[in-house]
Each structure stands twice: as C-alpha cells, then as structure tokens.
UniProtKB/TrEMBL annotation, chain A:
Residue ranges of every copy of the GCVT N-terminal domain listed in the record: 594-863
Name under which the protein is recorded: Sarcosine oxidase subunit alpha family protein
NCBIfam families for the chain: soxA
Alphabetical UniProt keywords: Oxidoreductase
Family: Belongs to the GcvT family.
PANTHER family per record: AMINOMETHYLTRANSFERASE (PTHR43757), AMINOMETHYLTRANSFERASE, MITOCHONDRIAL (PTHR43757:SF2)
Higher taxonomy: Bacteria, Pseudomonadati, Pseudomonadota, Alphaproteobacteria, Rhodobacterales
Residues in SoxA A3 domain copies: 494-579
Organism expressing this protein natively: Pseudosulfitobacter koreensis
Pfam families attached to this UniProt entry: FAD_oxidored (PF12831), Fer2_4 (PF13510), GCV_T (PF01571), GCV_T_C (PF08669), SO_alpha_A3 (PF17806)
Superkingdom, taxonomy of origin: Bacteria
Transmembrane segments: none
TrEMBL record, chain B:
Annotated source species: Pseudosulfitobacter koreensis
Gene3D superfamilies associated with the record: Probable tRNA modification gtpase trme, domain 1
Name of protein: Sarcosine oxidase subunit gamma
Amino acid sequence: MRIAGKGRIDRSAPVSFRFDGMQYKGFAGDTVASALLASGVRLMGRSFKYHRPRGVLTAGSEEPNALMTIGVGAAREPNVRATVQEIYEGLEARAQNAFPSLDFDLLAINDLASPFLSAGFYYKTFMWPRAFWERLYEPAIRRAAGLGALSGEADQDRYEKAFAFCDLLVIGAGPAGLMAALVAARSGADVILADEDAQMGGRLLSDTETVDGQDGADWAASVLEELKGMENVRLMSRTTVTGVYDQGTFGALERVSHHIARPDGRLPRETFWRIVAKRSILAAGALERPVAFQNNDRPGIMTAGAVRSYLNRWGVAPGKSVTLFANNDDAHRTALDLIAAGVHVTAVLDSRTDAQAQGDYRLIRGAQVCNSTGRKGLDAITYRTTSGEDKLSTDCLAMSGGWNPTVHLTCHMNGRPEWDESIASFVPRQDAIPDMTVAGAASGRFTLHGCLTSGADAARAALSALGMTVADIAVPQADDTPYAITPLWAVAGKGRAWLDFQNDVTVKDVKQAATENFRSVEHMKRYTTQGMATDQGKNSNVAALAVLADATGRGIPETGTTTFRPPYTPVTLAALGAGSRGKGFAPERHTTSHAASVAMGAPMIEAGLWYRPSYFPRKGETNWRQSCDREVGHVRNAVGVCDVSTLGKIDIQGADAAKLLDFAYTNMFSTLKVGRVRYGLMLREDGHVMDDGTTARLGETHFVMTTTTAAAGQVMRHLEFLTQAHHPEWDVRIMSVTEQWAQFAIAGPKSRDLVNGLVETPIDNDTWPFMACGPVRVAGIDARLFRISFSGEHAYELAVPARYGDALFRVLVKRAEALEGGAYGMEALNVLRIEKGHITHSEIHGRTTAFDVGMDRMISAKKDCIGKTMAAREGLVDDDRAQLVGLKPVGAIKKLTAGAHLYADASEAVPANDQGYVTSVAFSPAFGHYIGLGFVRGGAERHGDRLRFVDALRGIDTVVEVCSPVFLDPEGGRARG
Amino acid sequence: MADALTLTATTPCYGLLPKSIGTCDLIETNLGRLTSIAPYKQSALSEALKDAHRLAFPAPNRMTGNDGARAIWFGRDMALLVGPTPDAALAEHAALTDQTDAWACVTLSGEDAAAVLARLVPVDLSAAKFKRGHTARTQLGHLNASITRTEADSYLILVFRSMATTLVHDLVTAMESLAARR
C-alpha cells in the first residue's frame, strides 16, 4: 500500500511491469520488491527445499527469499533479488522453484515431509545403492530443490571488464562513506566512491534521522552533488565491491543496464572492474538479523530496517497493521516512523524486560514471538510473556535481532572478525586488510553521529598515510544515543524456526548437527548447508553459530565464524569472462597474405595465434587430399608458393653477435661467411632440443635467425636470458623482425625461373648457390633472398617489407600458376617435409635430444653451448633410446596415424612391450602410400625391422617397417640443382 | 630480366579504419620511418642521437621530441625512433633495426579516450598520472602494446602488425560501450 507523500520515488514517472504474467504498476525509483509490496503482493517466492511460501525479508542485496528470474529468452537472468532489481517499463519477472505456479506449488508436499528432510537426511538416506546417487537421487533432488535456471541458450548480451585507479576507494555511500569521501575529496585525493545501490545514501535514505538539523537524505544529496562536481571524484553507483585481493586490488561488479527498458545494444549489461587503490575505507554498513522462532518465515515477516526502508524510501506500508518484535532500542524507530506515516502499529514486543517506550505505542516488555499463522501471508502471531501466551492479529511483523556489521570484505585475506559483547556482534579487525580502514556501522559504530565521525576519521588516517594535507571539515551533528541490545537468537519452542531462509536451515538442524558431533562451525555449515546459498549466510551466519555455541556449551567467540570468501554478492560468469567469448578468447594474427588466401577459398587453420591456409581448393576438388596432393605436385614438379612469414625472425646485431649464436646453437656460426645461411639446432639448459631453424649472416656483425612458428616467443625469451643473464658484457642486441618482413617460400624445379622474373639482377647457381642469401631488389624495393629449402626442392625464400606482402603474394601465386604451379598450404608443406625427413615440433616435442633426432654430431666439440653438458648426461645418449626413424606400412592396413604406438611384431600391445611411437604421418604422392616419422628404441640401427602399429584411439592395428627418416632424395641433389 | 612490376603497399589497418564512435576517433597513423635503437653504450648513443636528430634518449616510460622526430621508450635499453631515417652515425653505438612495417599504428582521440582504454589496459592512463609524453609497454586486451599520450585527449597505440584486426575489434567494442553510456 502506497502512502501519499512518502518515499523518494518519482511519482510523475509511472512504470508498468509484469510478475508471473500479471501486470503491476510502480514508479521510477522502485525495486520489484517495493513495487509488488505497494501493490499488496506479499508472496514472492518459494523456499529452496520445502517450497514454503516466502515474501521479502529484507530490502537489500542480502535478500534470501524474493529471488526471481528477470527477462525472457536467451538472456533471462535467474536468481535476481527483487530487492535489488529496479523496475523498468515492460520488465518481466517470474517466480522460481514453484510448480505449476507460485500460488499453488505441488512441491510444497516437501513441507509436509519435513520431519524426514532435516539436516543430514540426504547423506543418510541416499547412500545405497551407490550408483543410484549420481543417476537417480541427485537429479531428482536437484529438480525438487532449487533456484532459477538459465535459458540454456547463448547469452548474446555484452559484458565488459575495466580497470580503475585511485588514491582512496570508499566502499559504501552511507553516512560514513559519504563523510569519508567528502573529507578525502576536499583534501584533493583521487577518490572512488562505490555503492551497490542505484541511489547513494545508504540508511540515510531509509531512516528519518537528521544531520546538522537537515533531513538525512537531503544532506546525502547535497554531499553527492558536491562530489559529482569534483574532478578528482568518481561516483560508482550500482557497483558492488565483491572481493579484496593482493596489492590493494578490488573486484567490483557494476550493473550497467539491468535497470534500462531497452538498452542500447552496444551497452554492456555488467562491467567487472578491477580497482587498484592506494588506500581503502570499508563503509559497507550493517545487516539486520532476524530472530528465529516457529514459522518466522511467512510472507509479511521482515526485518524492522526493511520495513523502514519500504516506508521511508519507497513510501510503501508493508502491512495494514504492523507489529514490531525487537531486542534493541534502534528497532523502536520503526514504530515511530509507521505511526508518523499513519500506519497502524498493533504493538511493540520487546524481549527485554527493561525496554522503554520511545513514543506513544503499546509496548509489551519481556515478550517473545513464538509462532505465526497464515499460509501465504501472515495473519497473526503468538507471543509469550511470563504471564503466558497471547495472539495478535497482524499482517506484517517487523523483527530485529540486532545488527551485524558487514565484515565480509575484511575476511577476504584470511582475517577473522572479533566478537564485541557490547553490540553482540562480530566486528572486523582494523588490520585485517592492508591499507584498509573500516568505518561506520561496518566497524560496529551504530549511531549516526558515530558513523559520520568514524568516516571522517578514517579519511584523515588514509590521507595522512598518503602524505596528504587534510582539509578542515567539521563533522556535522547527529544523533548519538547509544545502541542498547540484549541478545536474542532463537525463541525456545517446538516447530521449525528458520535461521537460513535461503537454504531452509532451522534451529533444529543446527542442534542436530551438534548432536551428531558436527561441532565445528565449518562442519555444522556443511552438514546443514547453512550459509551455502547465494546469500552466503548474510542473514543467518551469526545466529546459526550462536545457536551452535549454545548447543555445544561454548561461547560465541570460541565458536567463531565460517570463512567469508569473494564474491560478496553473486557475480555472473559472463562478467568474469567478459571479452573472451568466441574469438575474444585469443587474439588473431594474420599474415599479409590472409585476405588473398581467404579469397582463394583456403580454410584457415590456427598455428599458435596465427592463421595459416590449410590448402587452396580448386574447382572440381572435393576433398582436401586432392588439393594437398596437387599442391605437393606443384612443388615437386613445377613451383609452389607458401607464406612462411609466421616463422620467427630475430635480428641479431653487434660485435659479439657471432659469439651469441655459437653459445645458443649447438653448431658453429662464427665461421659462417657473409651471404650464407646455416641450419642450426638449439638446446634447452637441460640438454633437450628447444628449436631448430636457419640463420643467415647478412653482414659481419649482422645475422637474422629464423625460428619455428611455435617457438618464436620461446627462442626470443631464451636469447634475452642469454644476453641479460649469461653475457651482459657482450655487445649484442636482439630484436624481433617477424612482423617487419613478409616472407614467401618459392619451391620447386621452376623456382629460379619465378625468382628471376622478379629480381632486378638475375641469379644463377653460381651467384646464388644452395644456402646463399643476400639483398635483392624487387620492383624497386629492397628485399632479401635466401636459398633454403624445407621441401627438399630447389627453393628460395623471398622477404619484403610487410606492406608489400599482400601484393607480392598475389603476384607470386599468379606467376607460379603460369608455370603450372601454385600456392600451397600447411597440408602440402607437411607432406613435403615428411617426405624429406625434416623435423618439426612434432618430433622436437620437448622430450627428445639431439641424439634422438640423429643430430648429436651437430653438437660442436670445439666450443661450449647451452645444454651441451646436460646433453652428455648418462642416459641421454643411450643407444637404447627411442631414435628418429621413418615408417612404411607393410601390413593389411595401409593407413598410418600420428599418435599410434609401436610394439615388437606379434607382441601384445601393452606398455611393457612399447617400442616407440609415431609423431607425423602423411600420404606421400611421390611413393603412393602413407609414410611416417616416429621414434623407435635403438631405431637408427633397426632399419628394415617390422613392428606392430597400434592406434588404440582410432582402432588401427597393422604392421610397419622401420626405415630411414629421409624418404626422398637422401643425397640432397634436388635442393642443390 | 624482371618484368615491369609494381607492388602496391598496404597499411596494417587497411579496410579497418577510420572509425568515429561516440566522442572518440580511431585512425591509422602514418608515423614515417620506425627504427628500434638498442644501444651498446647508452651514453655514447645519447650523444649521437642528440647530434643527429636533436633527440634525447628517452628515460623509461617517456617520449622525447615532437611530431617531426620522436623517440619513444620501447622497453629495456631500447627506444623507437619515429619519423626520420636514422643517421648512419647511430649504428656505431646501437643496433638499428627497421620496424616501419612491423607495427600497426593507430591514434585514439576524444573525450572518452582514457575511458575506452580503461576497458583494455591495466595501467593508469588518466590525465593526472599519464601525461603528454608518457609512454608504456603494456597489455591492450590480449595484445602486447606500446601506448603513448601524444595530446591531452590523444593516445598513440602500437601493436604487432599481424594483430591489427583484433586491435580494431577490441577498441571499437570499447568505444561503442562508452558511446552507449552517453
């Protein structure tokens, strides 16, 4: 029921929305919860386990009951707290965990079965037979008990991540936070003020207190107005600081467009912030705790503070006749506010026998509510005094068991709160988080004056720690009446008294846990599931452990709390993973020939981050093998063109450049002549092969090293390490030039014809023999030509500055085609190199040595190099090691697959008989059958042996013959020709 | 003999830029020649750089010079000479490597430029902390980047040429997000 003239909603802006298909009206500034309450709707959800009818308990993000699914379609969002969701025109909210409807829920049968469903029930009941748990029991239980569900479709909305930096992060914009931000801002600090609410002001918006004689909310508005105008202040509303991490880093979730009816499609729904702050002030306030009594969970029963919020902030009377049940003075304000607003207050039941009335209302001292009635909404309560039990008709019970400081963030780095007897609450330790000060109600200061003062003090402390001068600001006057409380956790009695509303945990459950010896608070939590729902026990933790303390005969401080972990409130995985959807997961690296390759229809495959063409299909080719075989033929018989720019290229310069190469490579490079290229092998410190490639000497002190595509970064890092750590005294500098040069392999018997059609000065075998290199001019451009071959054919690599890559590739392909050749892709490249026995990282996979790949003689005896000593270790040069071999099919099945294992012929395919494995295979057009490379124990001496070939994964079992890994042109005549 | 042949140059962001979204503009910037300078002895190189190009060798996270010739700190013991062809005398004291084609160079400018970069860069690039002439080698999303503030609302961003598509995609997404908030 809306109360005329009350609330901070915009009555000139009516908003209509739907809840479970029914149309409702509210105003701008309403939450779903306030608007439904204003429309007289109390039943908003069904409980997790027993499907009990539930209404709102709170008015904030701690809400355990009123969870709804918001929106429709792919992007619908489950488990949204109605107390947080702002309404907008056309909003669709649905109740959860109810079948067929919220009003008539068949699964409420669980409530009648409750005697069997108490703590530990599942553990005890569904033990046998074991296999039934996963297949039958768990799915059934999960269906019956639960929260909302995702749509199952991909969410197409945007989410984003962002970074922010500040001198001071103030968490919470209630009186303490506002005061802290004001002091820091006026002192010139860079301030971020973050608050989870849409409107800043905290309890000042919900209570009727005054600040310096001014209405508290008006004071908040004036402070915010001032802060808004300051360049050094960033106000972040709808932003929940969810976690505290090392080095002053905070995680925060901003709800960007959840409150907008038709958001711009480019707007993210949420932004996950990482805020780095030199100092922080936690002013997150406090959460009011319910009192446990029989049937304390009926719609219409809520915390006293929530009643004041609905009344003062949203102008809603949550009932026609409201009863108050409290154990502290603070809660009495609820009665005063209601009376002032013209709402009937039936009585104030205070459990303290010495309670004093603060106004003109019926106060019943020493009273405890012990039961309630009303299935889908409260209609009466029963209370007990020394003179017996009595009943009161009421449709709303405002209860207060006191307040718990919001200590959660202070526990994210293993801090534990301390028990403060005077307020019967846990308060945070001030040193729990480095460089964080806790202020206001979060620190246990429960008066408005205390909040303002501690906010200002915290800011001063932070500023002086930052070495800043503090602006002179007087703390405004406000109420400082001490907070008076006598603890009351649970009212004695039969029946179920709810502690954890969200996970349906009762006082009885906690006692049962203690009885069954789950006496540690952590064990109790897991046995009962108390505090394990999405509210993380915000409403129930302290009461539950108080009940446990009582049941185990220990004090509350000795019992202790469970561990609060991030996030403070739920964070969507979409926000945490923002930017990583689809290809956002990794950047794409495109070669300069990318567009041309795609235009030629080449399927692009990933090689690290690079995209490379797999093959270039031509008309009439129906599968990749046809294209691949043709492309292999181009290279073997005419000329093929392939973009090899993805190989790492490292510019190495300096007087000591040759020394670095001798040190990094196993073989000698200082003897390499200018204008020549040499193949090199590089070891890791542990003696295993790191990478291979060619290095060209462009000048006396200038080399260009090529690495494999996969190891480009690793080799660069390795060389950095060698030059920085081993030989910082050397005059040598390294720089990646991978991106600077577009480089193309031109391979095949007609390759020189193609090259000579491009270069300004023609070359021949004498001027440009195998392994020659040097500068050439192509179309007036300075280019580099290398006569090197990965295919085994007469071949070149031509490098031009990357800007010309696209144009050159198109020219090369066209001219190769005119010579009856063409472009070739990764598949053909692989076939060509396997036919030639050239290794890649399939062979030098990190566990093989130079010895294993038959290159042990490349480790020069004349010099030291990285990995040389370790490579000579016993066991790394053992003749029985698996050595590189070639493989040919000789069995019934002619297909070979990489990954298969090899066993002695006719022996059982078990690990004990393992003789080796297959690393690379290809169908060789030159031989007309499959060929493979692999490693076989003592393989270098076993050419001609037959082995059993078993690919357990693909179900292939055949026989292969071991042979030389170089299938084609072992003398190398083709490359030299 | 070579046939009459011309090769047309293509810029890294060809077909991707410019983009104007919200308050921000993203354009590809032709910086002229880019040369990495890795000195063997920094003091000697500094002198040579001063003599040849009237540029001081930049301190870490700083840029020296102006539009005509700039030196941007580019990592440990390294600067990027931006604009002129490097004087041959520099080669005596430093490894010079042509990087003109290696980097996609874009300029992001506009009122929201800092906020756009705050979506992608884990470094404080706000006007108060990252002033004109400040530079950083850092991450932009997944990309390794060099970011320099060239004007009050302008950043020069360099990433590997091969990553231009991802760079533009990431920046445009962030620009759209900021535009949608206005």
